[in-house]
Amino acid sequence: MPRTRMASLVTAALGLLTLALFASSPAQAFPDAQIDAQIRPCFGGLTDPTIGTRCKAKARSPSRGPAKPPPPPPTFIDCAYARPGEISQAIAGNYDGVTITLTSSTGQACRESVAINRPARIEADPNVTLRFGQPLLVAPSGQPCIRLAPRIWVALRGLSIAQAEGERAPCIQGQDVDLTVIESNIAYSGDGSAITLVGDSRLNLAGSQIVSRSLEPAVVLQGRLKLDTVTIGAAVAGLKVATSEDSSLRNLTLVRLDDWTGSRRSASSAGLVVADVAANQLIDIQGLSVTGFSRGTYVSGTGEINLRAPKITGADWALIVEGPATRVSQASLQAGSNAWRNSLTYCIMQAHYYLCPFF
Questions:
Q1: Residue 18, Cβ density class (10 Å: 0-12 exposed, 13-18 middle, ≥19 buried)
Q2: DSSP labels for 297-321?
């Protein structure tokens, strides 16, 4: 085949191939052309924003992370505006050991039966004046002022608490709890007690006053007692404790309420009752003052009682001991119409009722 014809055929073939390439879609032939075809219509928007909307970027939906927990309830409560249950909700909605501060801008009390389900402190605003006549917390009729869940500790400071119609409910009640009451007033009227702690509880009372108009003891405790500078006014019985370990009482004043004196109830009244003292326990009592109760102090059990400088007046029986070894020193005891003052009275008796000054 002549070379000229061969060259013509090659040239024709190349021409056909070139036409085929240019005839195909630009996007298929060249990837760059495809991208160019997609973005070129949007260039006009740079100079004329009214051109089409298909080039606008789609708005991104906000990311949905985990929802934030609601803030805890406030811990500073003005009783003038508090809702029923607000104190309980503030404790339940916060952390263990939370401190709730109560105040009143108008002198109005919080009216609530406070349920405490975790370790907590409740205290009064330092600007609030502590007095019986104007309590900061008042319980509804027939309900406790404060209910403690088992196995927690609670501290009350600077509070004035009242229950005028307790019926069978005590003002403060708990089981297997650790309760501290400091510089507080408790006024109770009903058929229960101002404080009732049972099971294996601990009670720390300091700088406080309790008034209880009830046939039951003003304070009932099963467990350990630590007491310092406390005054209890009671109709029938002041303090009744069944100890589970060594206990200490300092500067306890027990007064029988004058408006109940002379009634038939006075014959069975008792100021301090310490029951079932175990053989390995020591109850140390210093600076005890008991006035107006038929039985000034009654102790029973098999352990040891140490009474230093007790002063018991207006009693039919100043000191009654059934069982425990009892040491009495620097005593001033009065029973019936007679009074004895012994500067160094020492008594150890077993399984005996006795009036200490005779020994």
A1: exposed
A2: EEEEESSEEEEES-EEEEESEEEEE
User: Tokens 């191939």 label which residue?
Assistant: 17
Query: 356: helix, coil or strand?
Result: helix
- Which one, of 231, 239, 225, 256, lies nearest residue 297 by Cα? 239
Helix-strand-coil split of the chain, %, nearest 5: 15, 45, 40
CA distances from residue 146 to 137, 138, 163, 221, 324 in whole angstroms, order as listed: 10, 10, 10, 16, 35
- Judged against a pLDDT cut of 60, whether residue 16 lies above it is answered with no
Q: What is the pLDDT of residues 123-148, one digit of tens each?
A: 999 988 888 889 999 999 999 999 99
Read off the tokens for 247.
């206990």
pLDDT in tens, 156-175: 999 999 999 999 999 999 99
CA separation, residue 186 to residues 108, 135, 247, 249, 312 (Å): 17, 9, 22, 19, 24
CA 235/CA 241 separation, integer angstroms: 17
List residues bridging with 335 in a β-sheet: 315, 338
**Residue 240 pLDDT > 90, yes or no?**
yes
CB 296 within 8 A of CB 255: no
Chain position carrying tokens 């009830």: 214
Between CA 288 and CA 297, with CA 291 as vertex, the angle to 5 degrees is 55
Phi/psi at 91 (5° precision): -70, -45
Percentage of residues in the chain with pLDDT exceeding 90?
61
Strand segments, DSSP code E, in 128-216 are 137-138, 146-148, 153-157, 160-163, 172-175, 178-182, 185-189, 195-213
Give the other-Cβ count within 10 Å of 69's Cβ. 6
- Chain CA centroid to CA 162, Å: 17
| The two three-digit tokens of residue 326, written as one number | 């009892």
Q: Give 24 or 225, the one with higher predicted confidence.
A: 225
Which helix (H) or strand (E) segment is 8 a member of?
A: helix 3-23
Closest to 141 in 3D by CA, of 126, 163, 114, 157: 163
Cα–chain-centroid distance for residue 307? 34
- Asked if residue 357 lies in contact with residue 340, where contact means CB atoms within 8 angstroms, the answer is yes
| Beta strands at 331-335 and 338-342: parallel, antiparallel or unpaired | antiparallel
